[in-house]
Amino acid sequence: MSPTLDEIRRAPKVLLHDHLDGGLRAETIVELARESGYERLPTRDPDDLRQWFEEASDSGSLERYLETFAHTVGVMQTRESLARVAAECAEDLAADGVVYAEVRFAPEQHTSMGLSLDQVVEAVLEGFERGSRGREIRVGTLLTAMRHQARSREIAELAVRYRDGGVVGFDIAGAEAGYPPTRHLDAFEYLQRENAHFTIHAGEAFGLPSIWQAIQWCGADRLGHGVRIIDDISVSGDGGTKLGRLAAYVRDKRIPLEMCPTSNLQTGAAASIAEHPIGLLRRLHFRVTVNTDNRLMSSTSLSLEFAKLVEAFGYDWDDLQWFTVNAMKSAFLPFDERLALINGVIKPGFAQIKWQP
Ligand SMILES: O=c1[nH]cnc2c1ncn2[C@H]1C[C@H](O)[C@@H](CO)O1
Ligand SMILES: [Zn+2]
């Protein structure tokens, strides 16, 4: 029997790639816009707004997809709104059965009403703490720098400053074409000297050179998306595969791929779930993880992403557990804490679901 959406919701899941400003509740956006006097929302009806985000994000272009964030970032400019959005994020993920999440956002985008970078981070950390309290979820924060801006070193320093307060790593995001990872080499070298962890959005809207730079120049621990690694794998008529040097390196080094299937369809990185490179990469035993990217823009949840993969590839509980353990192994948490979650929460949780009549 293949796993149903309801059953998947009850399984303990791990989410490594989820944007705070891409996961707001539509009702919350409308309320925050009203309270703050934000006038530019396309509609004030939550149902229409939810649909607007999904449709506007479905253009086949990452650049157009990113334009929709103006409306979520626009209502996240005060301590209260940031803390509320973060608390609701933790609540929503816990309700979906996520037991460990790393949620990212770009502090530099939340200072237009006068908050300092430190105040922004503190508000979000407080929100995650509040939303997680009493629930079976732990949330780590990743600080993102926008790749078209020039504040990555500053944001990297911010991440290190809050490393003992809930920030577990760093990331760069935004339009990929024209903004290669090496533009931010200074930030990555600083983080390496500080023994800090980081992931890089790479191989989503640009190909192998972006992935190569992220790994071989910048030293990324993980790849955000990384779907274009497929360009370095040739598949012959009889189904045989041959890995190029970069693809072999990524697999040999067990570099985690934070794959986000639905988001990739919307930005044109893949044509359909069934044709998504995740199928081949899983078969070839790359360290694949499954993620949401932006739950609002993609109208999705981690459970729904898994359910779509079950439908397209016929995955069973062992596959879903494999993706989940991969994600937990790849988290930016200390080794002993990762192990405790794998052995104490993930494996028993999947065993219970697998064996219940
Ligand atoms: O999939 C993505 N690729 C590149 N950038 C992205 C993606 N999803 C969200 N972002 C951007 C828009 C957000 O404002 C920013 C920080 O979360 O990250
Ligand atoms: Zn992303």
Question: How would you characterize the overall build of this protein?
Answer:
The protein has helices at residues 5-10, 26-36, 46-56, 62-67, 69-74, 79-95, 117-132, 152-161, 185-193, 208-217, 245-252, 261-266, 278-283, 302-313, 317-330, 335-355; strands spanning 13-19, 98-105, 138-146, 167-173, 199-202, 222-225, 233-235, 241-243, 257-259, 288-290. With 357 residues, it is an alpha/beta fold. The chain has a single domain (5-355), classed as TIM Barrel (Alpha-Beta Barrel), CATH 3.20.20.140. The chain has a four-stranded parallel β-sheet, sandwiched between helices. Helix 7 links the parallel strand 2 (98-105) and strand 3 (138-146). Bound molecules: 2'-deoxyinosine and zinc ion (ZN).
List keywords for this structure.
binds 2'-deoxyinosine; alpha/beta; 357 residues; 47% helix; 10 strands; four-stranded parallel beta sheet; globular; TIM Barrel; binds zinc ion
- The arrangement of helices and strands along the chain is HEHHHHHEHEHEHEHEEEHEHHEHHH
Q: DSSP strand (E) fraction?
A: 5-15%
Bound molecules: 2'-deoxyinosine, zinc ion
Q: Say which CATH homologous superfamily is assigned.
A: Metal-dependent hydrolases
Order of strands across the biggest sheet? 1-2-3-4
Shape: globular
Q: What's the domain count?
A: 1
What Rg, in angstroms, do the CA atoms define?
19 Å
What is the second-level CATH architecture? Alpha-Beta Barrel
Q: What would you call the structural class?
A: alpha/beta
The overall pLDDT, averaged over residues, is 97
Distance between the termini: 11 Å
Main sheet specs: 4 strands, parallel
